[in-house]
Amino acid sequence: MAIDIKTLVPDWIHKLAPYPPGKPIEELEREYGVFGSIKLASNENPLGPSPKAIAAITAALGDLHRYPDGDCFYLKRAVAQKYGVSPEALIFGNGSNEIIELAVRTFLRQGETAVMSEHAFAIYRLVVQAAGAKSHEVPMRNFTHDIEAIAEAVTPSTRMVFLANPNNPTGTIFRRREWQEFLAAVPPEVIIVMDEAYFEFVEDADYPDSLTWHGKDRLLITLRTFSKIYGLAGLRLGFGVAQPELVELMNRVRQPFNVSSLAQTAALAALQDDAHVERTRQCNREGMRYLRAQCEQLGIAYVPSEANFLLLRVGNGLRVYEALLRQGVIVRPMGVYGFPEHVRVTVGTAAENERCVRALTQVLRAGGPSAAAF
């Protein structure tokens, strides 16, 4: 008798829609018959990894027969010193995505609720559903987390709140006063997961660095990553900062050797390369200025961003994405985030930004005027 495999999994897994991965550049080029493409789709560092990280990895290749340090001993102490936290307050993962999953698997029970913004990072909702819990998605206000409404959405069944500051895919932030009012409104037993993957790019002086608010009276997990400004996305390394008691519990769920030895080696070196970080910030600053000016000149509406990408309203996002592919420019359509009229464009190098604008100009002129202002 044939087995109905669907009966082997819980209903919430059966209904789960997986995160849609992008295709490799080589496959897209083969499919569309173009070569020499540029990728501005995944918010990666256009300058690449730190030269110090590359040198450190090269020197460590002879030790690949050894298992990695399961506690990230040296990296943990370097990160603790850089951010002024205790080593016991740190947990490392295979990207900050793994810290999200560890937090959900550790603290969220089936039937409980996690509150998040409607257009936040898609992984929050997917991980919550995979755990058999429920997501309460709160509408945005002006493409920004409405954290007052998020606080009001907290109920006795709420175990966790997800916030992203800056938010992906909008690039928007909430500011210090809103954050303080939010903390005052949310019950202390609710765990707040603050995703700050793009915080190094923020230039607004009123940005609330959540590490300042860690303390024993607040269950707060701050997420950081080496994928963005440090340019180590391919190595998958992120970390969380939380009360040591929270970290100790998540470590019970974390698998051993979850961070590779090369990732640890590269991150240690990258932490010492302030010049590379500053070059990246300057590249992003200049690129963002250029892309905004070009969008305004072309009449393309965009969401003001504090990250390293822009959300553009182009009419039919999927059509524009496919048309740009044919010109060798890879961006990200935003239908999966509930923005079918938008594409997200990563800030690249000066040459990449100029090529993207040329291609976008041709595509929009061929297809008629872009969508009206937001």
Structure write-up:
The protein is of the alpha/beta class and about 375 residues long. The chain is about 40% helix and about 15% strand. The chain is built from 13 helices and 13 strands. It has helices at about 10-15, 25-30, 50-60, 75-85, 95-105, 120-130, 145-150, 175-185, 245-255, 260-270, 275-300, 315-325, 350-365; strands at about 40, 90-95, 115, 135-140, 160-165, 190-195, 220-225, 240, 300-305, 310-315, 330, 330-335, 340-345. The strands form 3 sheets. Strands 2-8-7-6-5-3-4 form a 7-stranded mixed beta sheet, sandwiched between helices. Strands 9-10-13-12 form a 4-stranded antiparallel beta sheet, with helices on one face. The longest helix has 25 residues, at about 275-300. It is globular and about 55 Å long. The protein starts with 10 loop residues before the first helix and ends in a 7-residue tail after the last helix.
The succession of helices and strands, N to C, reads: HHEHHEHEHEHEHEEEHHHEEHEEEH
- The strand count comes to 13
Helix-and-strand structural type: alpha/beta
Cα-based radius of gyration, to the nearest Å: 21 Å
Q: Kindly estimate the percentage of residues that lie in beta strands according to DSSP.
A: 5-15%
Q: If strands are numbered along the chain, what order do they take across the biggest sheet?
A: 2-8-7-6-5-3-4
- Fraction of residues in helix: 25-40%
Report the uncertain regions.
369-374
**Total helical segments:** 13
Distance between the terminal alpha carbons, to the nearest Å?
57 Å
Mean pLDDT: 92
Shape, principal axes of CA atoms:
globular
Biggest sheet: strands, sense, closure?
Answer: 7 strands, mixed
